Amino acid sequence: MNPNNSEETRWFLETVQSHEHSLRSYLRGSFPSVRDVDDVVQESYLRILRSRLSQPVSHAKAFLFTVARHLAIDQARRDRASPVDHRCDLMDLAVIDEGPSITDVLSVQEKVQLLGEAIAALPARCREVVILRKLKGIPQRVVAAQLGISGKAVEAQVSRGIDRCARYLQRRSIFSYYDEKA
Question: Of the chain's two ends, which shows fewer C-beta atoms within 10 Å, N or C?
Answer without folding.
Answer: C
